[in-house]
From TrEMBL, chains A, B, C, D:
The lineage of its organism: Bacteria, Bacillati, Actinomycetota, Actinomycetes, Kitasatosporales. Gene3D superfamilies: Tetracycline Repressor, domain 2. The keyword Electron transport does not apply. This is TetR/AcrR family transcriptional regulator. Residues 13-73 form the HTH tetR-type domain.
Amino acid sequence: MSTGSSHKPGRRGDTRQRIQDITLELIAEQGYEKTSLREIAERLGVTKAALYYHFKTKEDILVSLFQDLTAPIDELIEWAAEQPHTMATKQEILTRYGTAMVDAAPLFRFMQENQATVRELSIGNNVKDRATKLVDFLLPEDASLADRVRCFSALISMHAGMFMLKETEGDPEEKRRAILEVATELVTRAHEH
Amino acid sequence: MSTGSSHKPGRRGDTRQRIQDITLELIAEQGYEKTSLREIAERLGVTKAALYYHFKTKEDILVSLFQDLTAPIDELIEWAAEQPHTMATKQEILTRYGTAMVDAAPLFRFMQENQATVRELSIGNNVKDRATKLVDFLLPEDASLADRVRCFSALISMHAGMFMLKETEGDPEEKRRAILEVATELVTRAHEH
Amino acid sequence: MSTGSSHKPGRRGDTRQRIQDITLELIAEQGYEKTSLREIAERLGVTKAALYYHFKTKEDILVSLFQDLTAPIDELIEWAAEQPHTMATKQEILTRYGTAMVDAAPLFRFMQENQATVRELSIGNNVKDRATKLVDFLLPEDASLADRVRCFSALISMHAGMFMLKETEGDPEEKRRAILEVATELVTRAHEH
Amino acid sequence: MSTGSSHKPGRRGDTRQRIQDITLELIAEQGYEKTSLREIAERLGVTKAALYYHFKTKEDILVSLFQDLTAPIDELIEWAAEQPHTMATKQEILTRYGTAMVDAAPLFRFMQENQATVRELSIGNNVKDRATKLVDFLLPEDASLADRVRCFSALISMHAGMFMLKETEGDPEEKRRAILEVATELVTRAHEH
DNA sequence: TATGAATGAGAGTTCATTCAT
DNA sequence: AATGAATGAACTCTCATTCAT
């Protein structure tokens, strides 16, 4: 992605994008608090003040990342709302969700590993709302408490699996399929009364 | 047998203990970075400098909490190493693990919500090691990739479930049972080839 | 005949004027230091850089306001210099001064409330000079120290009165007359040896 | 005042006092906004952080100065409240007020020259309250609008006189007497119906 | 007649940590 | 067993100003 090499003159007018890219990279690695604006600016080869030309606050950079990168999740939710509550739909929800996560992997890794931070930030509610909605789509009509746990676990396992199985041996694509399989299994189980 | 630094309670010197208690309370609520020594000291009614009489650094407080509160997990691992690899054993591992988590709930909540921080701290490896060992105990002998995911999910779901189902309605004890049920189910599934 | 820098209104280029208006409004409310160019630009709906097309520096905006709004005071001084030193003249000086103040109320309020700032700025000397000259016009020939104080008080009271009696009840016009009355009284007293 | 010379080891435990002294000196000269904590710290030979050991914020330093230095004014108000409303009392109010101002001259100079700043700060209301109370003590019972202006002018003239007549020639003590004379005259006039 | 993009300097504030007492 | 006093480094953020377009 990006031209990859020379940084001084580089692109024209893509600074905003580059701020987002580098910020995402850094907070996924180090967390939000430990990533300073100085560090972001240094990596970009600009001044801290330049960041403030493009974003109003530090948190605003993160918010913009969320808005840009979680749009697919919102679309997924919108789509799901119009579908019949069949297992096929639920299966597709999981699949799509997996794809969205892989596409925005660093952001999801950040969310997974910095839940305390996310909770305190302005995006916290959004995140929780979406999770609740998604679980609701997966639930059977007469869900028992255990069924709720199953569907919740399905989502959680996808999140955690994506980022904590990195050090396990095996082809990533294969691992992804295995995770999806288990998640689907959990949702299916929830429907077998 | 004391761990070298001569700091066992010593009867009537419970400040050390109180530092740990308040620190745990605060980091579970706010995270590690956002909890300052000033805040801890203020809540205790002592000076920041007093903290340094009892602990070498801020991180040291956290480390001591880990050592004190995760001992049951280590014992569980030791115990498990001597048991036969039967489903009954595995079932008991999950049960005991659940109990240990509830007993040290704030610490586990902290670990769940601040994975990035934990990873960077000196305790990070410990945590990962223990998780790996526990998953290994749960695995069947001829585990497929999906089986690994199942056993991993079992543990993860227990963690996440304990702290994210707080706002779901229902009796806590009942919820705990449901979580355990699903976790057991996942491990069982892993053995049904 | 334009003053060199080509910046007379020129019909349909009222931005310069609007910058002055908004700046005056803001510094009268908040003071000079606490009014930023960003704020001025935002209120105008232009960029900060646009301000620099019309004025060389922040201070320059203030200077221009002074030059435009205190012209009547200069004219008053010129006029007074040609009048006989009678009480009637002095009475009229006070009256006219009051009118000038009301006409440029925000600027005078700013001067009253930000004396430290005005003193440090390039306009500081102007202000002091004018005050001295005006007091001199009001003084009797054989003025005692107390007489100087009386005439000085007359002017000061007009300034302070105009802006600090705002929260007192009563018709503004009436208050103005009362202030003028007291000022005149002070000058008269100074002449009663 | 103070030992005057060597600054490095100097006093023990008087840092708080020295912060107040230097801050007062600087804000009287330059104003509040233009006086930075860096400057204060440098003059003291300590770090900015040291200031924060003694005061919670920049504004807090100013507040502490107010509390310490305007106590005599509060006492004056308390005293006045118990006196009969005679001209002798009023005369003494003015005299005492003048003394209090001279004793805390730099602070009063700051207040006189930075009214906009004072107004916005937490001390603003205090200042206004006190002024109102003092004027009320000076007023005759059946005060006309002009009488209010006279008493108000009396106070204002004392303030302004003290700091703006600095460059006029003459013995300071003599000037002070002249100012008091005019102020008394104004209050007297207010009672001559 | 303006804007977009940036800078350098500096602001106030907070932090973990130290050390003599 | 603890305090008082301080430090150095870092933080987020704002400012007036510049300049190519």
